[in-house]
């Protein structure tokens, strides 16, 4: 997983921390190896992070990117290797709208946050804080929706149908 860059967000940024923890837990549960604490926020950082990841772990078959800009860099690096998405690498864009994912070629699989619901919750929480300034801030996790694109497939060499 290419998490948010520390140049853009603090390493303690809640969504980045939770996403990293949840991806790691899901990988453990599925019996998969997981590369944690790889960060990229720009196309250049995404490209370098992918190349470093592949140099250290050539068995990697899938990457999840928290930044659409980092995903651009991964796609560039994949193309430079002569690889194809999803034939050689599956790519997931985490925490992005399906509309953004549709702008990529191939159209990326994404975990889409519920923007309208998040807006409503944010407004409600702000009103609650203004009405009760001494109360602790509310926290609520809202699940993303998996939107299948054209960038994910069974791992290369798995023998599974593509």
TrEMBL record:
What is the scientific name of the source organism? Answer: Nonomuraea ferruginea
Which InterPro entries does the annotation name? LacI/GalR-like_sensor, Peripla_BP_I
The record's listing under Gene3D superfamilies reads:
3.40.50.2300
PANTHER family the UniProt entry points to? HTH-TYPE TRANSCRIPTIONAL REPRESSOR PURR-RELATED, LACI-RELATED TRANSCRIPTIONAL REPRESSOR
Keywords linked to the UniProt accession: DNA-binding, Repressor, Transcription, Transcription regulation
What domain of life does the native source organism fall in?
Bacteria
Transcriptional regulator LacI/GalR-like sensor domain segment(s): 20-152
Q: What is this protein called?
A: Substrate-binding domain-containing protein
């Amino acid at each position: 997983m290419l998490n948010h860059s520390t140049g853009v967000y603090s390493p303690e940024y809640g969504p980045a921390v939770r996403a990293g923890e949840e991806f790691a837990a899901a990988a453990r549960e599925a019996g998969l190896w997981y590369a944690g604490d790889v960060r990229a926020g720009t196309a250049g950082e995404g490209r370098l992070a992918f190349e470093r990841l592949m140099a250290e772990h050539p068995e990697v078959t899938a990457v999840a990117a928290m930044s659409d800009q980092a995903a651009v860099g991964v796609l560039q690096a994949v193309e430079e290797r002569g690889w194809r998405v999803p034939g050689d690498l599956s790519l997931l864009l985490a925490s992005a709208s399906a509309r953004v994912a549709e702008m990529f070629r191939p159209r990326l699989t994404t975990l889409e946050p519920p923007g309208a619901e998040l807006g409503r919750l944010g407004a409600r929480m702000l009103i609650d804080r203004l009405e009760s300034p001494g109360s602790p801030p509310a926290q609520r996790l809202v699940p993303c929706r998996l939107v299948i694109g054209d960038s994910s497939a069974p791992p290369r060499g798995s023998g599974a149908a593509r």
